[in-house]
Structures are given as C-alpha cells and as structure tokens.
Amino acid sequence: MAKSDTLLSVLAKSVKAGGGIHSASELAFMLGEPCTPTFIKFLADRVKKGQLRRVARGLYESTLTPPAPDTAIYKIIKKLRSGVLNYISLESQLSHTGDISQVVMDRVTVITKGRSGTFTTPYGVIELTHTKKPIAQLAPNLYFDPDIKMYRATTEQAMADLKHCQRNLHMLAR
Prior knowledge:
Layout (H helix, E strand, L loop, with lengths): L2 H14 L5 E2 H7 L6 H12 L3 E5 L2 E4 L6 H12 L5 E3 L1 H8 L9 E6 L4 E5 L2 E7 L4 H4 L3 E4 L4 E4 L1 H10 L10
Parallel strand pairs: 4-9, 5-7
Antiparallel strand pairs: 1-3, 2-3, 4-5, 6-7, 8-9
Helix pairs in contact: 5-7
C-alpha cells in the first residue's frame, strides 16, 4: 500500500476514535516513520494534492474524514497548547453563558498557562491569553464541558479574567 493510502487509512481510523487533528510528529508515529524534513515535505505534498488540510502551523486534518466541525476548533486548541491548562473564558465564555449580549462568531478566547498567541484556522480564530495565576487559584472556578472536552470558566472567573486582561467591559449585560 502506498504511503499516501496508509496515511488516509490511519486518519480515517483516528476520526472514529475521536481524533481528527494531528501534529506532524503524531502522523509520523502513526505511520511508523521518523518526523524528518522529508516526512514534512510528504505532508506538504498531501496538502497540495488535497488529501490533507493544514489547520494551523504543524497541525493537519484529513479532507476526506475531517473531525466534526462543531468540536474541531477545540481539538486544535488542545493540540496548540497540550500539556498545560487551557480553559474557555473571556468573551467566548460570557457569550456562551449569556452574560454578554453579543454572540462571539468565528473566534474562541482561551486562557492558558502556556504562551499567548493568535491562530487563524479554517474553523475560526483562536486567541490564547497567558495567565500567571496558579492553577490552585483557578481550579475551583473551572468546570469541565463534556461536549467540547475542555474546561470552561465560571461566569465569575470569566469576568475576573476580562477585567484582569483589561478587555472591554461595556458589553457585560449586568
């Protein structure tokens, strides 16, 4: 079987297992190959041929078996800052809870213990904002959302984050 066919087979199986967004090194591992510049070139060729789509720097999805569109952006967030605490907060969370009248479209605001950054993806913009607060201080104000498989801030924490980041407070419904 050609390497490209093996890749498509591996990607199809990963979506069934709840995956769908993969780093280059994960794809190399799944194919039993080292993640070398040659392998990265192979992935770039698959993107040009339309078999893969680059969703962020170093992250890919299959165009034939993409992840569910309603949860794909959250999978990307987890891959961008894996190994650190990330939670949905700020305007995205306040919109989710109805505490601001605006509906945040095509943007997810996330507080992270990792680096700050903004990433444009096919599913929307991901805005990561670093926090220096200790996890022990944040944990009581977070809850796990099983639909997106990520933590979310309570309304009080999201408002505190909004104030701490010196964001626009005029949109608060309260």
